[in-house]
Amino acid sequence: MLVLLLLVLLIVLPLFLVHPALHCVTNPIHVQHQYYQPGHFIIGGITSQLTVPKNYQHVLSLVFAVNEINENPKILSNITLGFQIYDSYFSAKMTYQNTLNLISRHKKTVPNYKCGIQKNLIAVIGGLESETSLYMATILTLYKIPQHLSSLYQMAPNEADQYNGIVRLLLYFQWVWVGIFVTADNKGEMFVKTLAPLLFLNEICAAIIERMPNASKFFNVFAMVEKYQVMAISLSKTNVNVFVVNADTSTMKCLQWLLIAASMSDVGPINKVWVLTALFDFSSETFQRDLDIQNFHGALSLAIHSREVDGFHPFLLNLIPHSETDGFISFFWQQAFDCQFLDVETEEESCTGEEKLESLPGALFEMQMTSQSYSIYNAVYAVAHALHALFVSKAHALHLQPFLRNILFNNSVGDTVFFNEKRELEGGFDIINWLTFRNKSFLRVKVGKMDPQAPLGRDFFINEKIIRWHQSFNQVVPLALCNDHCRPGYSRQRKEGELFCCYDCAPCPEGKITNQTDMNDCFHCQEDQYPNKERNQCLPKDENFLSYEEPLGISLALLALALSGTTALVFGIFIKYQDTPIVKANNRNVTYTLLISLFLCFLSSLLFIGRPQLLTCHLRQTAFGIIFSVAVSSVLAKTLTVVLAFMATKPGSKMRKWVGKRFSTALILGCSAIQASICMLWLGTDPPFPDLDMHSLPEEIIVECNEGSANMFYYVLGYMGLLALVSFVVAFFARKLPDTFNEAKFITFSMLVFCSVWLSFVPTYLSSKGKYMVAVEIFSILASSDGILVCIFSPKCYIIVLRPELNKKEQLKVKH
């Protein structure tokens, strides 16, 4: 299948092909426009110049390349190349005719090399459009010339690369709401069928497809203008700012007529961004020389990669408009300069031959080699290098193709020329920004390049800073969207019944963000981050733990130190007054043990403040549990001492043996040992450890001590609660014993406070998070310890310090 983009097809022919079945037949059709130069080997060419003066450069690029090779002693020395060039006249009939002329004897259409002197035709360069290539292939195949895939070489990059380049260009500028402009024929439909799926795969919507009736189909200019005016009105009202144009000759002719029709109506200029295929070039027909090209200002196109060839500009300056061998130049000169070479006076201006090519607008002729002419230049050199390799190897001429297939050389400007396995030129596309001016001149500015063979990341490049857009866009990158972008913090939500490029913007739900425009879905931040209020950015989470540097931590630490200091003060008072009756009466050693354990309880709360470490996590709950068990066991021992002391005073009582230091000591040690065993089992099986809780708080990471086995933690609390409950029950029943100073009353109150604090602790602790959970436990430790200290020791300190007269032995006797 022949490709639909602009091609230069290199058709290689055997040098001495003979087909005996054919007969010598001369053709009376006179070919006016041809250019012949003799040589040992002839390169044929088919160009299309009629009414398009600019295409004359294609002829000149072939001539220039052949002459340059003939003057180069390093290639094909002692062998000259010639050429035979015909015009296709944009006509199938004339393309067939002139293809026959190429394979025939010079000046005769004789498709049989036995008739007369042969031309030694070695290759044909032509087919700048797919139709021309098809016509040439038909004739060459019909006459047994091996015009198959094996003998056709494409002097243009792969067609798929061009479509991919268009898509990448659209994606670069985020143009996702575009139109397609083609002619209403098979060529246009093929372009749409190829491009539309690529657009869809890349989430680009073809919002509108304009199929223009071919201008050549109209027999009446006014009917054509009227039809195009209707389409221009429709085009001007659409919200599509970017159009992709299959920029072959017929499509561009239709587009130009459309723009003319728009200017002739009330529509006015149609200001769009035109994205054009590599077929595009500003080449006005002679009757369109005054056409305003301002509508194309800022257009972007792909172009087969090219560079300026040294010597080509001076070659053009030396052209003489009178030549016996060049049948094109005179016709070109008259078209380009709108004059006539006539001896008689006419209404038209006479050509002097002194006109300057550089004075012509670019739409009629360019002094710089175009990409199409550059391809022809490379094609001639490819044939020459292949032929040179053939003669160096002394191979038979019928075996030229292997040399051409494996050709690899650097041309005069340093570009590497070679073919891939599909016989396509390996190369990329330049990205051109077209700048137009009021005097009908223009500039083509290379603003980027697409090179599929380059490493990933360097295969597509655009210098956006040097691009100039149409004046109507105020030098801002035009938008090509169905609706406005969805800002970060929002996601796209498809509209029912609309193309997928049309969407609403929905705010991200709680806990999710989008950080780019037009994202399809919101997403969660990483575990150590959280969304900001606008939900368009993830912020790092702060660590959450009870620190000595914050007010809550400082307050609890100072309170713990104050209470431990108070406990130490009470202990000092009891040491100082240890021989007084009130100190001695309630088991002095147990009192000391209780005060020391309370002192340590207050200090143990400091283990809960600060960043959790492995050691502090191991000590927090276990130290607190064991120390508190000692304290509560001491309270229980004091309570039982009161009960046993009362029972021992009765005559004949056997309880005297239980009253003494050994009982109290054994009770404290035994109860504490049970709690210590629970804690050791906890540490030995599933101990607490430092942990990070990423999820409980949305904006913070909780740095905590994971309790390991939660059951063991509640076993510790439960056992401590059991001891407190027993102490409370015993103290409650002993509160009315007839002592002058019955300590059981105060123990009852202390255990009531203790149990109340820890019963409220559990639900409060479970409902708290982070540092507040730790603060609840610290407060419970301090409050319950302080309850014991205040309820048991404040009455005694009051008597010892303020009422010493009551601290006498007589006051402790039981009254009947």
Automatic annotation (TrEMBL):
Source taxon at top rank: Eukaryota
A GO term from the CC aspect: plasma membrane
Principal subcellular localisation of the protein: membrane
Key words of the record: Cell membrane, G-protein coupled receptor, Glycoprotein, Membrane, Receptor, Signal, Transducer, Transmembrane, Transmembrane helix
Residues passing through the membrane, by range: 552-577, 589-610, 622-646, 666-684, 712-734, 746-766, 772-793
Residues of the signal peptide: 1-23
Domain G-protein coupled receptors family 3 profile: 552-816
Annotated GO MF terms: G protein-coupled receptor activity
Compartment annotation: Cell membrane
Gene3D superfamilies according to UniProt: 3.40.50.2300, GPCR, family 3, nine cysteines domain (2.10.50.30)
Keyword Transmembrane helix attached: yes
Bilayer topology annotation: Multi-pass membrane protein
InterPro entries registered for this protein in UniProt: ANF_lig-bd_rcpt, ATPase_P-typ_TM_dom_sf, GPCR_3, GPCR_3_9-Cys_dom, GPCR_3_9-Cys_sf, GPCR_3_C, GPCR_3_Ca_sens_rcpt-rel, GPCR_3_CS
Pfam families: 7tm_3, ANF_receptor, NCD3G
Family: Belongs to the G-protein coupled receptor 3 family.
This protein's name: G-protein coupled receptors family 3 profile domain-containing protein
Originating organism: Podarcis muralis (Wall lizard)
